[in-house]
């Protein structure tokens, strides 16, 4: 936001802005940076990632990267990426300032280190720039090179420059007026240095909370499935098995968070067209793409170190299988209807197998089958919710092979699989294996109406639009869901340790 007169420091800032704005600016050409200024994101980083995720122009990018030819990298990414200037997040304070300057008859120039094709696409979309200066012909228009281009372009006239990075310092020094888009500790330093000629200041400090949100720690609840083998074998008193399960939980959680980061980065165009996903940190430009990539790599390194050295090689292989499958889902499988749902269900069920590999406890085929049907139902619930968001029948869901008007099909598929998971559970409870393992096995029948209630209620809430984008996130946050889970766990414990024949006597 532009500084307001809300404190002593803010008052001084506002007076500085007022002094600068009172000076006649009509003769000053306004030059504005693109990345980090007009838009909070970095267009080149987004385009490179789009090429990598979609396999477009990767060879050209690699050749340019090996030569360390930054302009060539930007040019290749710009040519091959599916870039949508109309979907970019924009800094409203900066845009309003530009529009006001244009309305006053001032010349406004987009001066960016981005590739010229990209910069011109943004300029064409916004319609507020008179011309564009950008990287082209092997020249990376940044820092001193951009300053030279500006000096040549303004032909001796004074100019104002709005930028956001350390590379803009020489341009601010040479400018008659400056606009600063700052973040972190540099905000106060730059504000004090150029206060006398500052015409605009926007504090765009980024928060770690946004990165943490992109990592989706609430989704770690899915990895509690790792403890199911431990729970059903009632081996929670085994310190070694419990420790292994805990380490496996964190390893899976770190991998899952890394994949969420990469998935969001690969889905920027689709997310920006979604009514709620457009507010995700990467889609909204609140976290730089490069930060997401680096964080994902660090999480993967830590996860596999835990898996290989803290748990077991067998578990590490399961972790690798999960990474390969979920990466395949992110890049390819999510585009195929039904295949995507089965893949999601497999990935959930794989967590149970990973828990078995970590603890050395064998898993009942009944449990695996129950989990698979249960998570197929939830995966269809997720697609059902997404299809409901499609405005018109026959309209395709972005990056998914589902269409508006197919919501009742998703609903039917989900309900059928919910019934199958309950039927599987009933067969398991009635098996000889349960009769021999539990002191009061008949108590387990209570879990069926509890799960039936939860599934029916969740589907009903999904139809009413009360579940949100993710059924698992809903279950974690919903108090009724937590109560049902607690009741199921208590039922399992009572069935194990209570002996009805003794109680009845």
TrEMBL record:
InterPro entries: HAD-like_sf, HAD_sf, Prenyltransferase, UbiA_prenyltransferase, UbiA_sf. One of its GO terms (biological process) is glycolipid biosynthetic process. Its EC number is 2.4.2.45. One of its GO terms (molecular function) is glycosyltransferase activity. The keyword Calcium does not apply. Signal peptide: none annotated. It is found in: Membrane. The chain crosses the membrane at residues 220-237, 243-262, 283-309, 315-332, 363-381, 409-431, 443-462, 483-500. Keywords: Cell membrane, Glycosyltransferase, Membrane, Transferase, Transmembrane, Transmembrane helix. It is a multi-pass membrane protein. Its main location: membrane. GO terms for cellular component: plasma membrane. NCBIfam families: PRK08238.1. This is Decaprenyl-phosphate phosphoribosyltransferase. It comes from Shimia marina. The lineage of its organism: Bacteria, Pseudomonadati, Pseudomonadota, Alphaproteobacteria, Rhodobacterales.
């Amino acid at each position: 936001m532009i500084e307001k007169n809300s404190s002593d420091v803010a008052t001084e800032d506002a007076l500085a802005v007022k002094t600068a704005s009172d000076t006649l600016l009509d003769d000053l050409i306004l030059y504005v940076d693109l990345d980090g200024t007009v838009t909070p994101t970095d267009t080149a980083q987004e385009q490179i990632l789009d090429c990598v995720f979609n396999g477009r122009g990767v060879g050209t990018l690699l050749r340019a990267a090996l030569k360390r030819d930054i302009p060539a990298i930007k040019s290749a990414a710009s040519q091959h990426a599916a870039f949508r200037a109309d979907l970019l997040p924009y800094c409203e304070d900066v845009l309003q300032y530009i529009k006001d300057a244009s309305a006053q008859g001032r010349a406004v120039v987009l001066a960016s280190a981005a590739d010229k094709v990209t910069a011109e696409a943004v300029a064409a979309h916004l319609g507020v720039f008179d011309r564009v200066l950008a990287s082209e012909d092997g020249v990376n228009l940044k820092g001193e090179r951009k300053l030279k281009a500006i000096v040549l372009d303004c032909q001796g006239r004074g100019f104002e420059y709005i930028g956001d990075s350390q590379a803009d310092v020489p341009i601010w020094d040479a400018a008659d007026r400056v606009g600063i888009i700052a973040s972190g500790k540099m905000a106060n330093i730059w504000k004090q240095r150029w206060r006398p000629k500052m015409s605009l200041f926007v504090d765009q400090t980024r928060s770690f909370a946004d990165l943490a949100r992109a990592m989706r720690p609430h989704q770690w609840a899915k990895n509690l499935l790792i403890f199911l083998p431990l729970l059903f074998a009632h081996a929670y008193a085994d310190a070694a098995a419990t420790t292994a399960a805990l380490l496996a939980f964190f390893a899976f959680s770190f991998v899952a968070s890394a994949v969420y980061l990469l998935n969001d980065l690969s889905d920027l165009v689709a997310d920006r067209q979604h009514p709620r996903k457009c507010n995700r940190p990467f889609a909204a430009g609140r976290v730089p793409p490069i930060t997401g990539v680096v964080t994902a790599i660090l999480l993967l390194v830590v996860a596999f170190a835990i898996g290989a050295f803290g748990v077991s090689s067998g578990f590490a292989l399961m972790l690798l299988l999960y990474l390969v499958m979920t990466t395949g889902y992110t890049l390819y499988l999510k585009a195929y209807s039904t295949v995507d749902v089965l893949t999601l269900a497999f990935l959930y069920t794989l967590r149970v197998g990973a828990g078995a590999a970590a603890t050395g406890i064998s898993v009942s085929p009944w449990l695996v089958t129950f989990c698979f049907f249960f998570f197929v139902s939830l995966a269809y619930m997720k697609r059902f919710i997404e299809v409901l968001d499609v405005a018109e029948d026959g309209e395709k869901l972005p990056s998914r092979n589902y269409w508006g008007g197919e919501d009742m099909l998703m609903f039917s598929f989900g309900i059928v699989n919910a019934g199958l998971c309950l039927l599987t559970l009933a067969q398991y409870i009635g098996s000889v294996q349960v009769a021999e393992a539990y002191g009061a096995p008949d108590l387990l029948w209570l879990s069926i109406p509890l799960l039936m209630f939860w599934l029916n209620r969740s589907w009903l809430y999904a139809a009413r639009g009360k579940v949100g984008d993710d059924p698992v996130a809903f279950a974690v946050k919903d108090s009724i869901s937590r109560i049902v889970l607690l009741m199921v766990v208590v039922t399992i414990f009572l069935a194990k340790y209570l002996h009805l024949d003794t109680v009845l006597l």
